[in-house]
Structure formats: C-alpha cells, structure tokens
Amino acid sequence: MRELTREEKAAIRSLVTKWCANYDREMGCLPLDCECYMLGKCWTGAYCRYFREAVLPLNPVLEAALNTEGPAPETRPCPVCGRPFLPDGRRRYCSEACSKAARQKKQRGYMRKYRG
C-alpha cells in the first residue's frame, strides 16, 4: 500500500465526477447514501467495486498505476497527440487513429520528395 500522488488523486476525482453512474453531485454515492469515499482517497488499497470494474478501465495508465505494487509503471508520450500510454512491445502510438495519422503524414512526405 502506498500514498496516491496528486496527479492520481486528480485523475480519480475526474473519473468519478464525469463517468461514475453511482455518483450524484448533490447526494454523493447513491448506493451508500453518503459522500463518495473515492473522492477523498489518499492511499492505494480497497476501491469501490463499481469504480474498479466500470470506471477505472477508461484510463488504462491510471489503472496500471493503481493495480501494481511499488512505483508507477513507465509511460511513453504518443508522438502524434502527446497523451501518455503504456508501451507494449514495439508499439509507438497510443491508438490506431494516431498510427494511421502518422502513416499518412509519412506517406505525404515520401510523395512530396518523389515528385520533386
């Protein structure tokens, strides 16, 4: 168990307020009928089951950081959009869309050079 960083706390708060179906701004956590305890979380450990299974997978970098022991895993910025992603083997881009955009840009450069 380790203390959450400021960025991790902000990411958790953002995910809960934006994507959690059990969260209401006035009521807090609807099933528990109290303030959502994920908003005040300071340590890794027990997480809300709904948050862990439905909301946390929306941010794979945060999910990997919270589910691993020790320091947060290394991330790499995407050369196209700049978003951080978990490198997996030889993967260079965060998504298929960024990969396609980079390939199109490279192809335009090839054709520009070829045509003179």
UniProtKB/TrEMBL annotation:
Q: Which InterPro entries match?
A: Cys_rich_VLP_dom
One matching Pfam family is Cys_rich_VLP
Q: Cysteine-rich VLP domain location, by residue?
A: 5-58
**Highest taxon of the lineage:** Bacteria
Q: What name has this protein been given in UniProt?
A: Cysteine-rich VLP domain-containing protein
